[in-house]
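Thread: Newbie trying to understand structure tokens

Hi all, I'm a second-year student working on a class project, and my supervisor (Dr. K.) asked me to get a predicted structure for one chain before our next meeting. I've only ever worked with sequences, so writing a 3D structure as a token string is new to me. If someone could post the tokens and maybe explain what I'm looking at, I'd be very grateful. Here's the chain:
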Amino acid sequence: MKELKKPVRKVAFPRYANYNAPIRYLLENGLGVRCILPPRLTHRTMEIGAKYSPDFVCTPFKILLGNMIETLEEGADTLVMVYGICKLGYYGELQEQILHDLGYDFDFINLSEYDTGKVKDLFKAAKYVNPKVKYRKVFKTLLEAIKMTEYIDSITSEYYLNCGFETKRGTYKKAYENFISNMYSANSRDEIERAYKKVRHAFEQIPISKPSHPLRVGVVGEFYTAMDQFSNFDVEQKLAEMGVEIHRWMNVSNMFLHYPGEKNLNVRVKEFTTYQMGPTSTANIRSTKEYAEQGFDGVIHIKSANCTPEIDVMPVLQNISSDYKMPILYLTYDAQTSDVGLVTRLEAFYDMISMRKKVVK
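---
Reply by user tm_fold:
Sure, no problem. This is what the structure looks like when written as tokens:
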């Protein structure tokens, strides 16, 4: 009797900025499963997530839960959740229970269960997704996905440095969006490299008119909200369009691939903090101090509501602000945050730092 062929898993990971592109690449080209790309985040996502989440949980929890529900509605049969050292470490278990209580039928891969510090144990998660997967192929594809991530972070950084100074509005954004689209469709290392070279060339051809000493603002904050455009209401784009050069050290490449480690960072900020305060706390303090030392015109600190590590960071950042006479704008996001209110605060912040720059000069 002929053995029935098992259907290919339809695996999904909640949407997070533009990092679903390398996740899709790894799942489909390395693990041999079908990746269900989550729908774009919308207010419906937030409403659904907030409806079924505990009241005082972090805002990213609500967004991720809402997006998981939308993804299951799109046909996913397997969900993957990462792990972390703050409340994120408990997200997966609680979200799985909520979704099962709602009646959804699916497999849940909580990577925190495989977090032993050994690569072979993480590979067990890959074998769970596809028992026939080969370690060598997964490793090769993982390296290519990592390179894609580095390219995304590099191009995103360059985009926010210059998009506010283009002479023809929208040219940078068009080139950037084409690059992201190419990352989502890439299925080989050659395609990844071609897409990167193409956007680099496109950026070099875009005429800009940037003053010799533009307004410079550093962005720091909670790992998810600071990087995800939907979660922070595209705050970097809004400020860039006012004519500001945006700098953000916080991204996946810097935090996970090139991170010097908490002990090294603590040495740099020992006058402000002695101990590690949370998952991204020391890095944010370090970044803020460096922005201040480099004469930046201001810093924006972004966090989700009820994010304890970033709440703890705020008094330290205020000390840096006081010592270096550098303004800091604190933005907190929750399910009720208004885009209109955000624009008003950004405009006031811009007016303040631009007037201050004239006086300081």
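A couple of things are worth pointing out once you decode it. The CA atoms of residues 252 and 258 lie 9 Å apart. The first strand starts at residue 10 and ends at 12. Feel free to ask follow-ups in this thread.
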